[in-house]
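# step 3/5: fold
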Amino acid sequence: MREVNIGPASEFSDPGRRIVGFGNFEVGVFKLDGEFYAYLNLCPHMGGPVCQGKMIAKVEEVIAEDKTSKGMAFSKTKLHIVCPWHGFEFDIRTGVHPGNPRARLRKIGVTLADGDVVISVPEEREAAAAAG
């Protein structure tokens, strides 16, 4: 792993993202409610560029006190990234698919140092193995 400074945290929208390329792989870095999350830009379903997909609030069923459905609504707290190839969704905070917890994005370490966002980038061969 190597540490890469990708710029000032203040330059990220909230919510927002930046895709950073490294030779044969990319990393998606997200800012959500002041926190940063980073993932290999590789959908575990079929290898699509998941981090480039739409960011959308999770759709949740609203349940009444009597346990009946009141319909569907967008979550006020959970934001998903949707892979543009086949629509697989992942929680931006956890990288986990809501319907299959075994389907998850590969986390990349992200920290703040002197106001800058720093990611822990895998070596090229590590990234290739993750894709494989």
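# step 4/5: annotate
The radius of gyration is 16 Å.
# step 5/5: archive (pending)
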